[in-house]
Inverse folding.
């Protein structure tokens, strides 16, 4: 046996024994790469996700809603920070990770390439988008890489508040005036299918899945998580009197799950390829913030260096 | 003007400063120069809106006509807002945003401290909650002003330009009209001469450390406290009030 195989076997044994992998531990290069890709994508999603929601802060319909939305978007920025730090433990700098986003090399969740057109979209995003993200994130609290799992535990505590505030917005609208109800239904119609796409390709078409499962980076498959989400969310929609825009949706007594229609994967691929409604705007906004912030970051560095020099003198 | 009307207006003056500044800061959300500053600005926006809500709710109680915080925030027109012109100024670059907050913080902290001793128990309680936040805000804006002033040539130039541009709006913070003087006599509001002295000390100390020049007092803009704002104000309110105006009476 070569040294490498021995290391790999030990690594797998650790994972099988549910022990966490820590930054200083030996790990296969592909495990490291896979994690860097996943964690940085996740970090970018938190940050880009601030844009569609930030879009409504100044127009929130009550001071209470405004404060809640501010707090939520602030949480998302915090999540971005935890995750950039988690990615750094794998030996990639935050600057490099962010540059990859800005150059278009790194991806973020496609869901944030859809626009928030009305106030109800803020409800739909919290309810459905955070709701779908939570499914993934709860699973990731048990992921095999220690820093990622610990970041997720902190994040999950905040995410359930995000989902609840979104659902509450929808519930109030659905029980409000006819115009408000229409606004809520329209938002659900537009966000439903993109939310289902958030779980990623079907298991049969998921390129990274098998390895991620073996290494316990992922612990449940895309399709499993998607089904749990559907089962839960359809019932929540019923409670507030909104209808899920899927004519094939039907409770299946035998499987104890909902049967449902099919995702339009051509739309998904199109958005991933950069042709969603807001891909360009999102990248322009991130690049603009970064470019216009350059002199600010330079000033902070220059000042810190001067201070250090004065201390030494 | 009765004492009750004076107190109502006094609450609105403070609340409107905080509400409009919070609005301006929240425009940065998602567009900050670094993620940490996105968080810091959102945090400020949240603190300001929290204090504004307490003040608006209290104003509604003082007025006694059943108006809520939302009625006062979303259903007053331009001429009924009594914030200073300082806080309504557009964000500009990051130096401008920081300098605007710094000038406000240097006024807001001693004001909040003094109001904790107000003869009005409710105002004192609201200020009591705000003092700690205001201390943090002033530290944050002072630190950045020092970084800009004593950072690079470019940051120095931008910070000085921001201060020079904003200075004309600082006078209005300290104007004591009859309404204010009446409240000072009643022990409700602090004498703004003392607040100005504290403001001057903070400004001088921080600018000295930042190697920035204190602008010379020249023409001081006014009118905000009388509801005579800049042209920006209508757009701010159009944005804030859009949903409440478009769907009258709806609950959110
Ligand atoms: Fe998040
Ligand atoms: Fe979230």
């Amino acid at each position: 046996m070569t040294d490498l195989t021995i290391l790999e076997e030990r690594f797998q044994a650790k994972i099988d024994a549910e022990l966490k992998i820590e930054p200083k531990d030996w790990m296969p290069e592909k495990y490291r790469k896979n994690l860097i890709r996943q964690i940085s994508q996740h970090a970018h999603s938190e940050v880009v996700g601030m844009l569609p929601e930030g879009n409504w802060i100044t127009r929130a319909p009550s001071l209470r809603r405004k404060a809640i939305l501010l707090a939520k978007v602030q949480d998302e920025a915090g999540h971005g920070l935890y995750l950039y730090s988690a990615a750094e433990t794998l030996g990639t700098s935050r600057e490099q990770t962010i540059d990859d986003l800005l150059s278009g090399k790194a991806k973020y969740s496609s869901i944030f390439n859809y626009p928030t057109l009305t106030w109800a979209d803020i409800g739909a995003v919290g309810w459905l988008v955070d709701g779908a993200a939570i499914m993934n994130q709860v699973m990731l609290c048990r992921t095999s890489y220690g820093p990622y799992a610990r970041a997720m535990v902190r994040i999950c505590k905040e995410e359930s508040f995000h989902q609840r505030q979104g659902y509450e917005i929808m519930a109030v609208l659905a029980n409000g005036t006819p115009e408000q109800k229409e606004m809520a239904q329209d938002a659900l119609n537009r966000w439903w299918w993109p939310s289902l796409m958030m779980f990623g390709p079907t298991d049969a078409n998921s390129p990274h899945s098998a390895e991620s499962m073996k290494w316990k980076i992922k612990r449940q498959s895309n399709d499993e998580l998607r089904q749990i989400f559907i089962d839960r969310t359809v019932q929540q929609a019923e409670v507030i009197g909104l209808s899920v825009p899927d004519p094939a949706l039907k409770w299946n007594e035998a499987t104890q799950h909902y049967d449902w229609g099919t995702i339009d994967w051509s739309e998904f691929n199109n958005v991933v390829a950069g042709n969603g409604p807001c891909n360009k705007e999102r990248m322009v906004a991130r690049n603009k913030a970064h470019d216009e912030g350059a002199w600010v970051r330079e000033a902070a560095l220059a000042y810190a260096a001067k201070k250090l020099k004065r201390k030494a003198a | 003007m009765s004492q009750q009307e004076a107190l109502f207006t006094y609450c609105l003056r403070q609340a409107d400063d905080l509400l409009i500044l919070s609005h301006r800061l929240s425009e940065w959300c998602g567009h900050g120069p670094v993620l940490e500053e996105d968080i810091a600005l959102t945090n400020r926006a949240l603190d300001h809106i929290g204090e504004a809500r307490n003040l608006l709710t209290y104003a509604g109680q003082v007025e006694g006509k059943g108006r809520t915080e939302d009625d006062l925030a979303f259903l007053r027109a331009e001429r009924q807002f009594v914030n200073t012109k300082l806080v309504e100024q557009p964000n500009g670059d990051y130096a401008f945003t920081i300098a605007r907050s710094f000038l406000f913080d240097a006024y807001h902290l001693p004001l909040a401290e003094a109001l904790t001793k107000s003869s009005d128990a409710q105002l004192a309680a609201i200020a009591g909650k705000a003092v700690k936040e205001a201390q943090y805000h002033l530290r944050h804006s002072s630190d950045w002003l020092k970084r800009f002033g004593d950072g690079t040539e470019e940051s120095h130039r931008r910070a000085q330009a921001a201060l020079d541009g904003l200075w004309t709006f600082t006078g209005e913070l300290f104007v004591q009209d009859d309404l204010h003087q009446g409240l000072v006599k009643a022990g409700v509001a602090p004498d703004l001469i003392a607040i100005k002295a504290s403001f001057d000390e903070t400004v001088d100390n921080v600018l000295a450390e930042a190697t920035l020049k204190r602008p010379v007092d020249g023409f001081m803009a006014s009118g905000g406290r009388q509801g005579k704002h800049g042209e920006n104000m209508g757009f701010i309110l159009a944005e804030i009030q859009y949903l409440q105006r478009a769907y009258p009476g709806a609950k959110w």
Observations:
- Residues A 76, 130, 159, 162 surround fe (ii) ion (ligand 2) (CB under 6 Å).
- Chain A has a mean pLDDT of 95.
